[in-house]
Amino acid sequence: MTTAVATARGLSARAAAAMLLALALAVAVVLGVYAKAHTPAGRPIFTLWFSGMLQMKVWLTTAALLLVLVQLTTALWMWGRLPAVASSPGWVPVVHRWSGAVAFGLTVPVAVHCMWSLGFGTQNARVLVHSAAGCLFYGAYAAKMLGLRVRGLPGWTLPVLGGTVLTLVVTLWLTAALWFFTRSGLPLT
Ligand code: HEM
Question: Measured from the CB, is residue 120 less than 6 Å from ligand 1?
Fold first, then answer.
């Protein structure tokens, strides 16, 4: 959606923001319905060089979390919100874009395994929050990517979407990877 399309359709800034919210919820609901409706396979598709699916997912998620923190730092730098740091050099937006793209790429094999192999878990609050956050993450990410291309959005839209994506990645890490790192007796890699 470009400025031209948005204005040609007479979309107000608020209507465009509402459209992004609707997109985010639609993506999340579709993923959640798939994960709930399909019978969990209970096995990995691949484990890369890790000893098991659990280890693969935990380390890919941890790498994604670190890259998302790079995203936060570079975003604050670009907006001049880092205390005592001058305006951002030209490479900062490049690092922001690529750290986001790689972080997203790392989440895909993890989420595919979560949804296909484990499904939408509801056995306890941690797993329920995790499953919902996973679905919402892709909705928020889709809205953020589209939001970058829609001109005339309210000024808070991109910071809110970016902050939501960041919060959801932190939530996913806390509800799954942290649990793994606090267990004993499991192979670390
Ligand atoms: C970016 C998205 C996601 C990330 C980074 C992520 C990450 C992880 C990690 C690291 C684990 C622990 C390893 C394991 O138990 O196999 C896990 C477990 C799990 N994930 Fe996800 N996940 C994501 C999305 C989802 C989605 C969309 C669902 C379902 C709708 C889901 C459902 C589950 C379930 C049920 C578990 C097992 C939890 C347990 O019993 O402890 N995840 N996830």
Answer: yes
50 lines ligand 1 (CB under 6 A): no
pTM here?
Answer: 0.91
**pLDDT tens digits, 98-135:** 999 999 999 999 999 999 999 999 999 999 999 999 99
Is residue 168 within 6 Å of ligand 1 at its C-beta? no
Q: Could you tell me the CA-to-CA distances from 72 to 65, 69, 92, 109, 156 in Å, in that order?
A: 11, 5, 11, 23, 16
Cα–Cα distance, 104 to 132 (Å, whole number): 17
Q: Which amino acid is at 43?
A: R
Q: How many beta carbons lie within 10 A of that of residue 171, not counting itself? A: 17
